[in-house]
Amino acid sequence: MLNVGLTGNIASGKSTVAARFAALGAAVLDADTYAREAVAPGTAALSAIVARFGSSILRGDGALDRQALGRVVFADATARRDLEAIVHPEVARRRAAAADAARARGEAIAVADVPLLFEAGLGGEFDAIVLVDAPEAARLERLVRTRGIAEADARAMMAAQDDARSRRDRADFVIDNVGSLDALERRVDDVWRELQRRAGGAPGRPE
Angle 152-19-73 (CA atoms, 0-180°, nearest 5)? Predict the structure, then answer.
């Protein structure tokens, strides 16, 4: 099984790319899903987060208030590293279990959607890395207009990632999301055919 890492600068369109890979036949492993599971009420990770950051990062129902926590960690590199030390091992465990299950099912290509792949030092875990990118101005607008995030918070979130040039230099494939959805999907299809070639399969035909 070809183990592919999918990452992207925030608000670049990575989720759209992941959905296209899934439609083409990839087993998509979603790190954000695993992160939510890792900090669900009653988990050891959530207890550790509360111990580190206080109960103000909880919602009234006892679940993690991700936006409140985000405002803390995106403004403080030490706090962000502390959070990552709590959550990343649990996410990695879940991702590894999902990859093992995909391999047992006979999947040819598994695409692990990992937003902070480079920042977490995970580059060496994958056979190929796909980066989704878009201009900074476009990403900022998506965060503010589409997601309703305050501009200062959006800029802090963007600054927390490695710079775009560094990420592009380390990726095997770069998908630039600068045009229409059709154009984006055509580029994903091109990358998919190359991934199939690397996995030893015949080139597929996009739906």
Answer: 25
CB 35 within 8 A of CB 70: no
Residue 168 belongs to domain spanning:
2-39+88-199
CA-nearest of 71, 33, 22 to 192 is 22
Do residues 177 and 139 make contact, with C-beta atoms less than 8 angstroms apart? no
What is residue 166's predicted lDDT score, i.e. its pLDDT?
A: 84
Q: Give the pLDDT confidence score for residue 187 in this predicted structure.
A: 97
Residue 47 within a domain: no
Question: Does 176 fall in a domain?
Answer: yes
- The CATH number of the domain holding residue 179 is 3.40.50.300
What is the structure's pLDDT at 205? 36
Per-residue DSSP letter, 142: I
H-only helix segments in 56-150: 66-73, 77-104, 136-141
Question: Sign (positive/negative) of CA torsion 36, 39, 43, 44?
Answer: positive
Q: Looking at residue 204, what is its pLDDT?
A: 40
* Beta pairing partners, 27: 110
Looking at per-residue confidence, does 150 or 186 come out higher? Answer: 186
